[in-house]
Amino acid sequence: MVMNKVVSGGAEREVSTAPQAASVPGSTARMTPARGMAAPVRVAGERVREGHGPVSLLERLGERLSFERMSARMYEALATKLERCGTFESGPRREDLMAIREEEVGHIGILRHAIEKLGGDPRELGRAARVVRVANSGVFQVIVNPRTSLAQGLEAMLMVERADCDGWHMLIEMARAVGEHRMSDSFYLASTEEERHVELLRRWVTHHALQDVIAGAEVLDAA
Ligand SMILES: [Fe+2]
Protein backbone atom coordinates (compact mmCIF):
# COMPACT_ATOMS: atom_id res chain seq x y z
CA MET A 1 0.00 0.00 0.00
CA VAL A 2 1.48 3.38 -1.03
CA MET A 3 1.04 6.09 1.59
CA ASN A 4 1.64 9.81 0.96
CA LYS A 5 1.93 12.49 3.62
CA VAL A 6 -0.42 15.45 3.17
CA VAL A 7 -1.02 18.56 5.26
CA SER A 8 -4.60 19.49 6.09
CA GLY A 9 -5.59 22.17 8.59
CA GLY A 10 -2.01 22.32 9.80
CA ALA A 11 -1.97 18.64 10.72
CA GLU A 12 0.12 16.14 8.81
CA ARG A 13 -1.60 12.87 8.02
CA GLU A 14 -1.11 9.88 5.75
CA VAL A 15 -3.48 8.93 2.98
CA SER A 16 -3.60 5.99 0.65
CA THR A 17 -2.93 6.54 -3.02
CA ALA A 18 -4.57 3.24 -3.89
CA PRO A 19 -6.46 3.62 -7.18
CA GLN A 20 -9.78 2.62 -5.63
CA ALA A 21 -9.75 5.54 -3.16
CA ALA A 22 -12.51 8.07 -3.86
CA SER A 23 -13.73 11.29 -2.29
CA VAL A 24 -17.02 11.29 -0.43
CA PRO A 25 -19.32 14.15 -1.52
CA GLY A 26 -19.93 16.64 1.26
CA SER A 27 -17.20 15.16 3.44
CA THR A 28 -13.50 15.67 4.01
CA ALA A 29 -13.23 11.92 4.50
CA ARG A 30 -11.85 9.65 1.79
CA MET A 31 -13.47 6.28 1.39
CA THR A 32 -12.97 3.23 -0.70
CA PRO A 33 -15.92 1.42 -2.22
CA ALA A 34 -17.39 -0.88 0.41
CA ARG A 35 -15.75 -4.04 -0.87
CA GLY A 36 -12.39 -5.09 0.54
CA MET A 37 -12.28 -4.41 4.28
CA ALA A 38 -8.52 -4.95 4.29
CA ALA A 39 -7.96 -1.72 2.38
CA PRO A 40 -8.03 1.71 4.09
CA VAL A 41 -11.63 2.89 4.23
CA ARG A 42 -11.56 6.36 5.67
CA VAL A 43 -9.07 9.06 6.50
CA ALA A 44 -10.66 11.72 8.67
CA GLY A 45 -7.81 13.53 10.36
CA GLU A 46 -6.41 10.53 12.20
CA ARG A 47 -3.24 8.71 11.23
CA VAL A 48 -4.64 5.76 9.31
CA ARG A 49 -2.63 2.92 7.87
CA GLU A 50 -3.55 -0.55 6.83
CA GLY A 51 -4.42 -2.52 9.96
CA HIS A 52 -4.87 0.64 12.06
CA GLY A 53 -7.68 2.99 13.08
CA PRO A 54 -11.12 2.73 11.43
CA VAL A 55 -9.76 0.15 8.97
CA SER A 56 -9.04 -2.46 11.62
CA LEU A 57 -12.18 -1.39 13.51
CA LEU A 58 -14.17 -2.28 10.38
CA GLU A 59 -12.47 -5.66 10.22
CA ARG A 60 -13.38 -6.30 13.86
CA LEU A 61 -16.95 -5.09 13.35
CA GLY A 62 -17.30 -7.58 10.51
CA GLU A 63 -15.87 -10.28 12.75
CA ARG A 64 -18.40 -9.48 15.49
CA LEU A 65 -21.25 -9.33 12.96
CA SER A 66 -20.38 -12.79 11.70
CA PHE A 67 -20.23 -13.99 15.32
CA GLU A 68 -23.63 -12.54 16.23
CA ARG A 69 -25.29 -13.97 13.13
CA MET A 70 -24.02 -17.41 14.10
CA SER A 71 -25.06 -16.89 17.73
CA ALA A 72 -28.64 -16.14 16.66
CA ARG A 73 -28.68 -19.35 14.58
CA MET A 74 -27.22 -21.31 17.50
CA TYR A 75 -29.99 -20.17 19.85
CA GLU A 76 -32.59 -21.14 17.23
CA ALA A 77 -30.95 -24.58 17.05
CA LEU A 78 -30.89 -24.84 20.86
CA ALA A 79 -34.62 -24.00 20.97
CA THR A 80 -35.26 -26.75 18.39
CA LYS A 81 -33.20 -29.19 20.46
CA LEU A 82 -35.17 -28.25 23.58
CA GLU A 83 -38.46 -28.88 21.75
CA ARG A 84 -37.19 -32.32 20.77
CA CYS A 85 -35.42 -33.39 24.01
CA GLY A 86 -37.22 -31.31 26.64
CA THR A 87 -35.39 -29.36 29.33
CA PHE A 88 -34.12 -30.28 32.83
CA GLU A 89 -34.92 -28.99 36.31
CA SER A 90 -33.99 -25.26 36.54
CA GLY A 91 -32.98 -25.42 32.87
CA PRO A 92 -34.00 -22.94 30.18
CA ARG A 93 -37.47 -22.70 28.67
CA ARG A 94 -37.88 -22.22 24.93
CA GLU A 95 -38.89 -18.59 25.48
CA ASP A 96 -35.68 -17.96 27.45
CA LEU A 97 -33.57 -19.10 24.49
CA MET A 98 -35.62 -17.15 21.98
CA ALA A 99 -35.41 -14.00 24.13
CA ILE A 100 -31.61 -14.24 24.03
CA ARG A 101 -31.81 -14.85 20.28
CA GLU A 102 -33.79 -11.62 19.89
CA GLU A 103 -31.03 -9.72 21.72
CA GLU A 104 -28.43 -11.23 19.38
CA VAL A 105 -30.51 -10.00 16.45
CA GLY A 106 -30.51 -6.54 18.05
CA HIS A 107 -26.71 -6.68 18.21
CA ILE A 108 -26.62 -7.51 14.50
CA GLY A 109 -28.50 -4.24 13.90
CA ILE A 110 -26.00 -2.27 16.02
CA LEU A 111 -23.09 -3.74 14.07
CA ARG A 112 -24.66 -3.21 10.65
CA HIS A 113 -25.23 0.44 11.53
CA ALA A 114 -21.64 0.86 12.78
CA ILE A 115 -20.16 -0.77 9.65
CA GLU A 116 -22.24 1.45 7.37
CA LYS A 117 -21.22 4.54 9.38
CA LEU A 118 -17.57 3.71 8.68
CA GLY A 119 -18.28 3.22 4.98
CA GLY A 120 -18.23 -0.58 4.97
CA ASP A 121 -20.70 -3.08 3.59
CA PRO A 122 -22.23 -5.45 6.19
CA ARG A 123 -23.01 -7.96 3.43
CA GLU A 124 -19.33 -8.63 2.83
CA LEU A 125 -17.22 -10.92 4.97
CA GLY A 126 -13.69 -9.84 5.86
CA ARG A 127 -10.90 -12.22 6.77
CA ALA A 128 -11.58 -12.08 10.53
CA ALA A 129 -15.28 -12.76 9.90
CA ARG A 130 -14.45 -15.84 7.85
CA VAL A 131 -12.09 -17.14 10.56
CA VAL A 132 -14.79 -16.72 13.22
CA ARG A 133 -17.30 -18.57 11.06
CA VAL A 134 -14.94 -21.53 10.75
CA ALA A 135 -14.06 -21.45 14.47
CA ASN A 136 -17.73 -21.42 15.54
CA SER A 137 -18.83 -24.06 13.05
CA GLY A 138 -17.66 -26.79 15.45
CA VAL A 139 -19.93 -25.48 18.21
CA PHE A 140 -22.82 -25.25 15.76
CA GLN A 141 -22.27 -28.91 14.83
CA VAL A 142 -22.36 -29.90 18.52
CA ILE A 143 -25.70 -28.10 18.96
CA VAL A 144 -27.44 -29.48 15.86
CA ASN A 145 -26.13 -33.02 16.33
CA PRO A 146 -29.15 -35.12 17.40
CA ARG A 147 -26.89 -37.34 19.56
CA THR A 148 -25.89 -34.47 21.88
CA SER A 149 -28.03 -33.41 24.83
CA LEU A 150 -29.45 -29.97 25.53
CA ALA A 151 -26.95 -29.60 28.40
CA GLN A 152 -24.04 -30.34 26.06
CA GLY A 153 -25.37 -27.78 23.60
CA LEU A 154 -25.66 -25.18 26.35
CA GLU A 155 -22.13 -25.90 27.52
CA ALA A 156 -20.81 -25.38 23.99
CA MET A 157 -22.82 -22.17 23.77
CA LEU A 158 -21.27 -20.95 27.02
CA MET A 159 -17.83 -21.12 25.37
CA VAL A 160 -19.12 -19.02 22.48
CA GLU A 161 -20.72 -16.42 24.75
CA ARG A 162 -17.56 -16.01 26.83
CA ALA A 163 -15.61 -15.27 23.66
CA ASP A 164 -18.40 -12.95 22.54
CA CYS A 165 -18.09 -10.89 25.74
CA ASP A 166 -14.35 -10.47 25.17
CA GLY A 167 -15.02 -9.43 21.58
CA TRP A 168 -17.47 -6.70 22.61
CA HIS A 169 -15.08 -5.37 25.26
CA MET A 170 -12.38 -5.10 22.63
CA LEU A 171 -14.75 -3.26 20.27
CA ILE A 172 -15.61 -0.75 23.03
CA GLU A 173 -11.92 0.06 23.48
CA MET A 174 -11.24 0.24 19.73
CA ALA A 175 -14.18 2.57 19.05
CA ARG A 176 -13.01 4.87 21.87
CA ALA A 177 -9.46 4.84 20.50
CA VAL A 178 -10.61 6.24 17.13
CA GLY A 179 -12.98 8.78 18.68
CA GLU A 180 -16.24 6.93 17.94
CA HIS A 181 -17.68 7.51 21.42
CA ARG A 182 -21.36 7.16 20.53
CA MET A 183 -20.57 3.89 18.78
CA SER A 184 -18.61 2.77 21.85
CA ASP A 185 -21.65 3.51 24.07
CA SER A 186 -23.90 1.32 21.89
CA PHE A 187 -21.30 -1.47 22.13
CA TYR A 188 -21.30 -1.11 25.91
CA LEU A 189 -25.07 -1.75 26.00
CA ALA A 190 -24.60 -4.87 23.87
CA SER A 191 -21.76 -6.08 26.12
CA THR A 192 -23.97 -5.86 29.23
CA GLU A 193 -26.55 -8.07 27.49
CA GLU A 194 -23.81 -10.51 26.49
CA GLU A 195 -22.60 -10.70 30.10
CA ARG A 196 -26.15 -11.60 31.13
CA HIS A 197 -26.20 -14.35 28.47
CA VAL A 198 -23.01 -15.80 29.99
CA GLU A 199 -24.54 -15.66 33.46
CA LEU A 200 -27.74 -17.43 32.36
CA LEU A 201 -25.84 -20.15 30.51
CA ARG A 202 -23.44 -20.65 33.41
CA ARG A 203 -26.42 -21.04 35.76
CA TRP A 204 -28.15 -23.60 33.52
CA VAL A 205 -24.95 -25.58 32.92
CA THR A 206 -24.11 -25.58 36.63
CA HIS A 207 -27.65 -26.69 37.62
CA HIS A 208 -27.39 -29.60 35.21
CA ALA A 209 -23.91 -30.59 36.43
CA LEU A 210 -25.10 -30.55 40.06
CA GLN A 211 -28.15 -32.68 39.21
CA ASP A 212 -25.81 -35.10 37.45
CA VAL A 213 -23.42 -35.41 40.37
CA ILE A 214 -26.27 -35.80 42.91
CA ALA A 215 -27.92 -38.48 40.77
CA GLY A 216 -24.56 -40.27 40.52
CA ALA A 217 -24.10 -40.14 44.30
CA GLU A 218 -27.60 -41.58 44.82
CA VAL A 219 -26.82 -44.48 42.51
CA LEU A 220 -23.64 -45.22 44.48
CA ASP A 221 -25.56 -45.04 47.79
CA ALA A 222 -28.19 -47.43 46.51
CA ALA A 223 -25.57 -49.95 45.32
FE1 LIG B 1 -25.00 -13.51 23.43
TrEMBL record:
Record Gene3D superfamilies: 1.20.1260.10
UniProt-recorded name of the protein: Putative ferritin-like protein
Record CDD domains: Ferritin_like (cd00657)
Compositional bias annotation for Polar residues: 17-30
Domain of life (superkingdom): Bacteria
Source species of the chain: Chondromyces apiculatus DSM 436
Record region (Disordered): 1-34
InterPro entries: Ferritin-like, Ferritin-like_SF
